[in-house]
From TrEMBL:
This is Uncharacterized protein. Residues 1-23 form the signal peptide. The keyword Signal applies. Keywords: Signal.
Length: 549
């Protein structure tokens, strides 16, 4: 996938030696796994060194779709595609051409349809009369998005991620708006003459996370926030794997049902964990994560769980992502996984880590991730910080006995909580995002939450408790400046059965440059370090000084 402009391939010819798998630790807790994963091995897919590999992903038939270029070709829209086996053999080119650029697009993605005859590129579908492995005359067909998100000043990028359901008809995507917010939509992809149109679109993300509190005239009730960047259709096409938050202010992986307004946390890490791609039987997953990277894991920001981290978020996600993901891909030491996880263990075991699949400090994870249809292998991309060649990595599970793949179902046309009124998107994009609310605890106290268009977020806790045992007191504040310095401070006390505390100041530099979101440790005018302090929760303590700039 071409990296999103908002978030900022060839490969070794000989097969590199496998790395024996074992449980690894990271993120401050012992590795714990369920019974599903025993041994595993990581290896590199051989690729012609006279070509530049760009991306690789498994197809529904088990071959590998690769996008690549001739040496020296830097135009990412000049695309060559081939299929090959994952041992590097049977390389078979079937497409070479220029993918037209369209206003408000977001690069090019390669999402293979379950029918294995089409590839969703974002703004186009590459269509074959046969399966990709036999394709000889592919046709490039434009996709027409709903007018409300296709363009306009209120749209930053028409799509960020787009995915295809098992029924080969329905899709989901995330539209990025000009006010740095986003909406998630589903629709049905229908062929109409020489165009694909997206019919029956509906919004499935939360636009207003608050409702009046009938018990307190000056209060509101936060609602669970649905939506988040979409990653994969799961449960046969009746749910989505998305980026979300349930306990912490830093993202984790969540499954959102399309049958009811429900969501379930798949991962729970204090650091940055963004994507989970499920195996065909949905018992295993592969996920991008900072949990194994102690010096660049932003776990200090998410260690202490906070009430309502979705609707009353402190806005730390972009700083955490830029520091721990973008920065590590460019120059900062560390890794971002991926991790191989047992889904059930990840959902239920405290401090679950899974297995670190990063094998070389000089290579860094890049998307996409995919599973072989047999369920015993998964694939992802890696690149060097210095640029140049990329490579495809495979993890093989020789002892794993997959269950039957989850059968495909028809994704619903009408989602119970979805909205077909897309006219609200323009007003939503124009909203100032000026929030000033008060949330009363179910047992005691309250929280005040202010968010201004100037990038300041303040959250104050006044002996707040929902359960009568865990009580929050203190404040958090973020003053964000993407092109300058952003400062987050927290003086927060959590008392109760799992106590916690934050006495923390973190100052980040601009979200650009070789070390984006650089932590600034130098002194301020009074001589106090611009980044200092700690967070602690339930016996674990993280010092700001343990992180690298």
């Amino acid at each position: 996938m071409t990296p999103s402009p908002t978030r900022r391939v060839a490969i070794l010819l000989s097969l590199l030696g496998s790395v024996a798998g074992c449980a690894q630790t990271g993120g401050g807790g012992p590795a714990m796994t369920g019974p599903a994963i025993d041994r595993f091995a990581v290896s590199t897919v051989p690729f012609d060194p006279n070509l530049d590999l760009r991306t690789g992903t498994y197809t529904p038939s088990g071959s590998v779709l690769v996008s690549y270029a001739d040496k020296g070709v830097e135009d990412r829209r000049q695309v060559k595609l081939a299929t090959m086996d994952d041992d590097g053999t049977d390389f078979r080119p079937f497409f070479s051409g220029q993918i037209p650029e369209r206003a408000k697009d977001n690069g090019i993605r390669f999402m293979v349809f379950p029918d294995n005859k089409r590839i969703f590129l974002g703004d186009f579908v590459l269509e074959c009369a046969t399966v990709l492995e036999q394709c000889t005359d592919p046709k490039l067909i434009p996709v027409q998005y709903p007018a409300e998100v296709a363009g306009g000043d209120h749209v930053s990028h028409r799509w960020s991620e787009m995915i295809v359901a098992p029924d080969n008809r329905h899709i989901a995507w995330t539209t990025l708006l000009s006010n740095y917010s986003a909406v998630v939509l589903t629709g049905e992809l229908q062929k109409s003459g020489a165009t694909y149109i997206i019919a029956k679109p509906q919004i499935i993300s939360t636009l207003d996370p608050f409702q009046p509190d009938p018990a307190h005239p000056d209060g509101v009730l936060p609602k669970p926030v649905l939506g988040g960047e979409v990653k994969q259709f799961v449960h046969g096409g009746t749910a989505l794997s998305v980026v979300g938050a349930t306990r912490r202010d830093i993202p984790d992986s969540v499954v959102q049902s399309l049958l009811a307004p429900e969501r379930q946390a798949i991962t729970d890490t204090p650091g940055y964990t963004e994507t989970t791609i499920f195996s065909p039987d949905e018992r295993l997953g592969i996920t991008m994560t900072t949990r194994f990277s102690e010096q660049t894991d932003p776990a200090i920001l998410g260690l202490v769980p906070r009430p309502y981290p979705d609707s009353m978020n402190m806005g730390l996600s972009m700083l955490a992502y830029t520091y721990s993901v973008t920065g590590v891909r460019r120059a900062r030491p560390g890794n971002i996984g991926p991790a191989l996880i047992d889904i059930e263990a990840s959902k239920t075991q405290d401090n679950y880590q899974g297995h670190n699949l990063s094998t070389d400090k000089d290579w860094v994870y890049r998307s996409p991730m995919s599973w072989h249809p047999g369920g015993q292998k998964a694939m992802w991309q890696e690149g060097r910080r210095t640029g140049g060649s990329e490579r495809i990595q495979i993890v093989t599970l020789p002892d794993y006995r997959p269950a039957a793949p989850v059968p495909g179902k028809i994704t619903p046309d009408r989602i119970p909580y979805g909205s077909t009124d897309l006219s609200v998107i323009k007003d939503y994009a124009k909203a100032a995002r000026d929030i000033d609310v008060k949330v009363y605890g179910k047992r005691s106290g309250y929280i005040t939450y202010r968010r201004t268009p100037a990038g300041v977020i303040e959250k104050s806790y006044f002996d707040f408790s929902d359960d009568g045992r865990s009580v929050y007191s203190g404040t958090e504040r973020l003053a964000a400046n993407p092109m300058g310095r952003s400062t987050y401070t927290a003086k927060l006390q959590l008392s109760g059965p799992q106590p916690g505390r934050m006495d923390l100041k973190m100052t980040f530099g601009p979200l650009t440059g070789e070390l984006p979101a650089k932590l600034i440790f130098g002194p301020d005018a009074s001589g106090e370090p611009l980044t200092h302090g700690f967070a602690e929760f339930n016996g674990r303590r993280i010092e700001a000084s343990s992180l690298v700039p």
